[in-house]
Amino acid sequence: xxxxxxxxxxxxxxxxxxxxxxxQTWFKGKTDIVSVKDSLVEIGCxxxxxRDWLEQRYYQQIKLSLxxxxxTDTSLLFSVVTLKSETVGxxxxxxxxxxxxLFELGEKNLxxxxxxxxxxxxxxxxxxxxxxxSNQLAQAVALAITANLGKxxxxxxLHGGVGVGKTHLIQAIGNKLLTTNPNFKIAYCTxxxxxxxxxxxxxxxxxxxxxxxxRNLDLLLIDDxxxxxxxxxxxEEFFHTFNHLYAVxxxxxxxxxxxxxxxxxxEERLKSRFEGGMxxxxxxxxxxxxxxxxxxxxxxxxxxxxxxxxxxIAEACSGSVRDLEGCLVRLITRAxxxxxxxxxDLAKKIVADRLLSKKPSDAKKVxxxxxxxxxxxxxxxxxSSRQAQFVLPRxxxxxxxxxxxxxxxxxxxxxxxxxxxxxxxxxxxxxEKAVENSTQVQSWVKQLRLQLQx
Length: 454
Prior knowledge:
The chain has 454 residues and is of the alpha/beta class. It has helices spanning 3-17, 20-26, 48-57, 59-70, 84-88, 102-118, 136-147, 166-180, 191-203, 207-215, 232-247, 268-274, 287-300, 307-316, 321-338, 344-358, 363-373, 378-382, 388-403, 409-415, 422-437, 439-452; strands at residues 31-37, 40-45, 75-80, 156-160, 186-190, 219-223, 251-256, 278-282. The protein contains 22 helices and 8 strands.
C-alpha cells in the first residue's frame, strides 16, 4: 500500500475513535508516514511536543491499525520532520504572479497567519457546514454571533455526541470573523491543551504570560470543556478567565458531550455561568442530512460518486458525521488502491466492514458478551457492587452500548438497571480516558469488538 494511502486510512480510523478536538490537535496536518521498511514504520511529527504526546498516549492505538493494514507486527518510530503539508503552502500560486496583486497575496497570507495563530482549521467554515433539523439551531446561533460578537448568546454552549460537528461549527465562527477582520484576537484550543499550558506556565513561572494570552481576546473557543471537571486548579483559572472576558463583553464559545448540569465534578459556579448564556444541542444527523453531508464531502474531494451509492451509505450509517466520513474515506481509498470503479457492491463491502464491527445485534448481546469475557454473570454487570472485579467490566459495557450501539444514556441506564443515568455518563467518561491512556483497556475494547462481529 502506498504510504500516503496507508496513513490516510490510519487517520480515518483514528478520527472515528477520537474526539474531533483531539484528532485535530494531535493528528490533522501534524503527522505523516516518513517511511515503511520491513515492519518498522517511521511517523513524522510537526514538533517534539506532538512526537512525545503520540508516543506516550497513542502508540498502541496507531500500532493496532498499522498491524491490521500491513498484516504484520509493526514497530513505530516517531520523529520530528518537515511535513509535506508544511511545504505545500510554499508552492507557486495557481495564477501567475503577474496576475496576482501584492494586495491579494498580502491579504491571503495575513489571513492564513492569523488562522494558524488562533489554532483554526481553514476548512471549517459555515459554507461547508451542511445544515439540517438536527443542527439548525446551533448553526443559526453560531452564525448570529459573528454579527454581534459578545452581545448576544454569550456564552454559547454547544453539546452533542462524538463526531456531530461541534468542532467544525465553533471554528467556523472564528474563521468567518478573521475573514471579515484579520485583526480580531481569537484563540481555539481543547480544554486539555488549556490545562497543559496552565501547568507548564506554573512550572516555568510564566502564569502572567498565560493569563495575558487568554484574557486579551475578542473570542475564546474551548472544545471538550467537560474535561476540566475534577481539576481544581484548571477550574479556578478558567473561572477567572471566563469572568474577565465576560465582564468586558468578549465572546466565549464552549463545547461538551453533555449539557452543563450533567457534567459531574464541575464546580457549581462554572455550571451557573455556562447555563447563563445560550445552550444548543446537536443531534446525530437524520438520513437526508447524512446524504447531503456525503455529497458535500465527495465534492470537496473532487469525487464523482453515484447518488444511489451515496443514498445507500447514508441509510446504512446511522451514527455520527464522523462515521459517515469514515465510510466515505474508506470507499475512496479502496477505489484508489484497487483501481475499482465506484459501485454499490464496493460500498456494501465498505459499510459491512465498518458496521459489523460497530453494531452488535442488541444490548443484551453486549451485556452477555462482556460478562463471558470477564467470566462474570450478567447480574454482576447489572448489580451495584463496587468491587473492582465488577466495576471496570460494568463501565466497559456502558462504553460499548454508548459508542457502538449509539444508545442514549437513559436507555443504557434502563438496560443495566440503574436509576440515575449520571452513573452511565461517569462510566463512559472513565473508559474514554482509559482507552487513550491504557494499552490494556485498548486491547480489551478491541477484543470485545472483534467478538461482537461474530
